[in-house]
Amino acid sequence: MENVCKEMISYLNNHKFSIRADELALKFTGSNVMTCAYGMVGESFSSGTCVMNEIRESMSMSTKIGVVTHTLGLFCPNLCKLLNISYLGKQVPVSFGNLIRSAVKSRERTKNVSNDFVDFLIECKRKGDLSFLGHAMTFFLDGYETSAYLLTYTLLELARNPSVQVEAQSEIDVVCKAHNTIYSYGALKELSYLEDIIYETLRIHPVIKFLNRSCTKECLLPSPYQDSDGMFVQIKKGTQIFIPVEAIHRDTKYYHDPKKFDPHRFKQENRSRRPKQSFLGFGDGPRICPGQQFAVTQIKIALAAILLHFNISINAKTIFPLRKKFYHLSKFPKNEIWLDFSVRTTQTKQ
């Protein structure tokens, strides 16, 4: 991750103009996933292209047909199985499959053990688990695009909230001075306010708008209405449940002035005052996002590197309010988010 961060900083230093936040974020997470998960060099900052982004674009999720297949996958999974339809539009994109097979074969040939995701895939293959490409695809979707989405909106919120940005930079400067780096595990662990910023961004801009679950055991839920006279709602086994994440994240019962960007909500003492399920940015329960720690870590290290060297501000090309794409499954807004990165005049030197 450190090398990818340094490539990103060099890229920002060499581009003295406004930059699209989503493109920067996709370059970073693309290179980082390639390096950390698949043991390859991403080169998205040096070559101007990203293999991961090419694979992302090859999926049919940006078309109307892609939206239909994705919706069917969520609401009618049995029908998709019957019709042999993948919610991605393809079972596994050919280019992605070739990429992973190449990484696995290369590792098998060299017999190097790196204790990374490729080693996990090799172990799956040895055990006869033919779904190892599916595991790789899951990691790709979780570690690449969704992380880029969160990084994009975190950069935006930092630009829109200068006081938050200054407080984060102060924390980074102190930690960097103490550890003489921001890239060590110890240094990252001490950046608690920066992590609170990430969680607050995810509260306001959740990657997933709702969670879908299947009821495994019949149960009775108390009615949410005060005048219900003890009435219950019966949930039968097999019922599909949809949990409105965005609505919960903006509920005044849990968050005072929910539209305000306030990272201090996620200080430990404030978290403990709320029910655990009042924040569902990574889901919850047995099916909570398995890549949560990786996602937070890579976003955290990227933000630390950027804020150590640059101040972030909104470029005039960014038009508010941001609008969602009507039939696009991409989580990024229709408006392009342009940001300016100006070199800090005072900073802790590494």
UniProtKB/TrEMBL annotation:
The keyword Endoplasmic reticulum applies. SUPFAM superfamilies: Cytochrome P450. It is a peripheral membrane protein. GO terms for molecular function: heme binding; iron ion binding; monooxygenase activity; oxidoreductase activity, acting on paired donors, with incorporation or reduction of molecular oxygen. Keywords: Endoplasmic reticulum, Heme, Iron, Membrane, Metal-binding, Microsome, Monooxygenase, Oxidoreductase. Its cofactor is heme. Heme binds at residue 289. One of its GO terms (cellular component) is endoplasmic reticulum membrane. InterPro entries: Cyt_P450 (IPR001128), Cyt_P450_CS (IPR017972), Cyt_P450_E_grp-I (IPR002401), Cyt_P450_sf (IPR036396), Insect_CytP450_Detox (IPR050476). Coiled coil: none annotated. Its main location: endoplasmic reticulum. It is found in: Endoplasmic reticulum membrane; Microsome membrane. The keyword DNA-binding does not apply. May be involved in the metabolism of insect hormones and in the breakdown of synthetic insecticides. Belongs to the cytochrome P450 family. This is Cytochrome P450.
